[in-house]
User: Fold this.
Amino acid sequence: MSKEKILTVQDISCVGQCSLTVALPVISACGIETCVLPTAVLSTHTAFKAGWTFRDLTCDIDPISEHWSKENISFKAIYTGYLGSREQVDLILKLIDRHLEKDGAAIVDPAMADGGKLYAGFPQDFPKDMARLCSVADVILPNITEACLMTDSEFRTEYDEEYISALLKKLAKLGCKKVVLTGVSFDPSKLGVAVYDCSSEKTEYYFTDKLPRMSHGTGDVYASAFVGAYMNGKSVYDSAALAADFTVRTIEATMDDDSHWYGVKFEKVLGYLIERLSRS
Ligand code: PXL
Assistant:
C-alpha cells in the first residue's frame, strides 16, 4: 500500500472522541491525506445519557458520490466505521465500486456493538446488513461482540483458543480476506488481537499488557491507527501490532483522569505513533 489519499466513512460525534474526530487526526498524523464522508452528525456518541441529537446523512451519500464521479475522484483505501442507517450499507457498496482504486483496500470496522450488546439506536437485525459490507472487505476489524452478532455465535466473556478459532473461521465465511479480531484475552493480564488470513487459514496473535480501565472510543483509535500504519506499507500483522501498542498508550495517557470517561486522550501520544512509523 502506498501513501495516497484515502476515504473514511463514519459519523461525526461532535463531542466524545470517537469516529471522525479520531480518524481524521490519527490517519493524518500518519502522513496520509484523509477525505471524509460523514454518515450522521450526533451531539455526542451514544454512550452519553439519552438525549443526544442524531442527524442521519443517508440522503447525502449518493449526491456526493455522483459529484466525485464527475471529478474522477478515487481512493487508495476506503475505511468505514459507524453507519447512520442500514440503507447506508448498499450506498457504501456502490461507493466502493465507484471510487476504490483497483489495487485499493476496503477496510471495514463494523462499529456497532461492545460488551455483548448493540449500541443504542441500532435495530437488532442490523448486524446482518453490516455482515454484507464485511463480505467485500480486504480487512475487517470487529471486536468479539460484533464478530458474534455477525456470525450468529454465542457471546462469551470466558473462552479458549478453540472458541476464537471457530469465530475466525465463521467470519472468513462472510467473504472478507483478512480479519483483525480485537479484544482477545486468554490471560487476565494480557489483551490483544487475532490476525487471521482467510485464504491460508493462518492465525497470529499479538498481546499487550491489559490496563485496569475500560475505555470508550478505543475501537476507533485502534482502527484508525491500523489504517494509518497499513497505508504506510506495513503488513496487516505489523499494522495490527502497532495499533495495539498505540492504543495502550492512549489509555495510559487517560488513566489519571477519572472524569474523562467518554474517550481516550490520543492527542497526547500522537508523537509516539509518528515516531513508530518513522522507525522503519
Ligand atoms: O466508538 C464507536 C461509536 C461511534 N459512533 C457513535 C457511537 C459509538 C459508540 O458508542 O455511539 C455515534
Remarks:
- Residues 113 and 146 are 6 Å apart (CA to CA).
